[in-house]
Amino acid sequence: MANQGSRLTRQNLHGWLFALPGFGLMVMFVVIPFIFAIVFSLTNQRLISPNPTEFIGVENYSNLLGLGGLVIEPIKDDEGRWVLDSNGEYKYPRTRKFTRNNPDHPDIQGMKEWFSWQWDHKKVVVLASDPVFMKALVNTLTFVAVVAPIQSLIALCLALLINQRLRGINIFRTIYFMPVVVSIVVVSLLWRFIYDGQNGLLNSVLASLTFNHFEPVDWLGNPDTALGSIMVMSIWQAVGFHMVIWLSGLQTISPTLYEAAKIEGASSWQTFRYVTWPGLRNTAILVGIVITMQAFALFAQIDVMTNGGPLDSTQTIVFQAVERGYGKQDISGGSTLSVVLFVIVLSISLLQRFLTREKN
Fold first, then answer.
1. Nearest one of 320, 333, 298, 313 to 64, comparing CA atoms
2. How far is Cα 277 from Cα 325, in angstroms, rounded to an integer?
3. Residues in the chain with pLDDT values less than 50
4. pTM for this entry
């Protein structure tokens, strides 16, 4: 008994020794950089600044996440009547009148207009300390909300299609998986040519299908279509990877369950609902988490295809962090963005884990 216990102890020791390099790399490239990011986010560290680094507390977070609101009345003339512009609409004073050196509004000092709308005759303005970050945050969350479910669904459908014992099925598996092994930079360059507003393949195909009645669209140069175009490319590029994960999950389901369902006269939908989907529960959790993490890490496509434009319509949090940290040498700003992104991703991961937990 004592020999068996010592043997187990040696096996555990050997296991920890084999795992030690992995833990060391994780600490070196994940834990330590994140600790430095937290420290730098509490300072005004800039590599190009001649001033010494100072501790400023949560000022960077305040400048990044600060929000405010303002209700503006139309301009009135000397007789107290509202002034109209050339289009017959109410004319409002500039927002800067309230956010620049205005003692009546100290809470919105230095903020900029994010977006606004008209309510009755008044103008309601939402202000932000950093509107570019707010656009990046909205774009990132929109990208995740659209790409994650669509990519997961398409990958599942492809996995169901190729999970057949047919001659030549491996060829289709290779075709679907091929975009995954190609560099994302190469794929982004390819799709930039496809989306070209003048001689792009997409415009040429649409023009041919409509007998030249289709007006060419600058897909990446139009703020209304740029982010959607990147979403389509991203879904196409990574769907094969998640298809393989779904396929591995499908192959773990016992064939006897399908045989039993067939004997009972279950339809294809009933078989999927009561046999296939329950067997894919853990796979679905994994795919959901992986797609969400990949979506939040959106950077290469933006860097190659749009560089955050046009009009900041494709800004993302990771792109902003890299742009500020490396492009502008603003180490504290880039670190602050990294910490905020970590908190968002961690919160969503914990929420996913809570919603998909095992229930007794």
1. 333
2. 44
3. none
4. 0.88
